[in-house]
UniProtKB/TrEMBL annotation:
GO terms for cellular component: plasma membrane. It comes from the Archaea. Gene3D superfamilies: P-loop containing nucleotide triphosphate hydrolases. Pfam families: ABC_tran. Keywords: ATP-binding, Nucleotide-binding, Transport. Residues 5-220 form the ABC transporter domain. PANTHER family: IMPORT ATP-BINDING PROTEIN. This is ABC transporter ATP-binding protein.
Length: 220
């Protein structure tokens, strides 16, 4: 059976002093082996959509469906399994753990998933090597440049070999050379392995090359 991710009538309203409708009536359907780019101006809801798909934000309305199950209605155990093994997110603000070295940051999701020590070592070393940050394996994130931290964040997202990879502005802090490298690794680890890739970006070069683009508009 082909694995599909469907987002149906997604709506997210943030309620603080003011009420913000970050996204309304958003729909998307994507199969394994496919990629989609979410484009749109700042504040158009790209990060909100990715966080809802990652099951880190609860939609106000609508459904996220994966493998015919409604993600926002999963049981606790299923939700842990989904968050831990099915979906990997590369955050716009990196979300690296300051107390851990680069190696430990990337290994962390694998430890949580109960992977064996040898497998963790091989996978982390492979990812750091591919992203040319292996020399920083014992370094703490605060000593790295923005672009280096961004590549660590990508390695974290890919660590558990997730079926769905969500990349939020994955090239925001990178020069062209590193940006091309990151996109190549993202494709190699997702689409080429029959997985789903959803990428949010402002980068015109990435948008121009994308298989499919959804352009979001800023809500007034
Ligand atoms: N935690 C929050 N509380 C209140 N409002 C929020 C929160 N997070 C986002 N918003 C609002 O929701 C809207 C969508 O934000 P979101 O971060 O999803 O946009 P984005 O497209 O990712 O923007 P950018 O390109 O700047 O990253 C914005 O108007 C933003 O101010
Ligand atoms: Mg964003």
């Amino acid at each position: 059976m082909v694995k599909k991710l469907i987002v149906e009538n997604l709506e997210k309203v943030y309620r603080s002093e003011v009420e913000t409708i970050a996204i309304r009536d958003f729909n998307l359907e994507i199969k394994e082996g496919e990629s989609i780019v979410l484009a749109g101006p700042s504040g158009s809801g790209k990060t909100t959509i990715l966080l809802c798909i990652a099951a880190m934000l609860k939609p106000t309305f609508g459904k996220i469906i994966y493998e015919n199950k409604i993600v926002n209605k999963l049981s606790r155990e299923e939700l842990i399994e989904y968050r831990c093994n099915k979906v990997g997110m590369m955050f716009q603000s990196f979300n690296l753990i300051e107390y851990m070295t680069v190696f430990e940051n990337v290994a962390f999701p694998m430890w949580i998933a109960g992977k064996k020590k040898k497998e963790i070592k091989e996978r982390v070393n492979y990812l750091l090597e591919e992203l040319e940050i292996r020399k920083y394996e014992k370094t703490y994130p605060r000593f790295l440049s923005g672009g280096e931290q961004q590549r660590v964040a990508l390695a974290v997202a890919l660590a558990n070999n997730p079926n769905i990879v969500l990349a939020d502005e994955p090239t925001g802090n990178l020069d062209r050379k590193n940006s091309d490298k990151v996109i190549k690794l993202l494709k190699k680890e997702t689409v080429e392995k029959n997985k789903i890739l959803i990428l949010a970006t402002h980068d015109e070069k990435i948008i121009a090359k994308a298989e499919k683009v959804i352009s979001l508009k800023k809500r007034m």
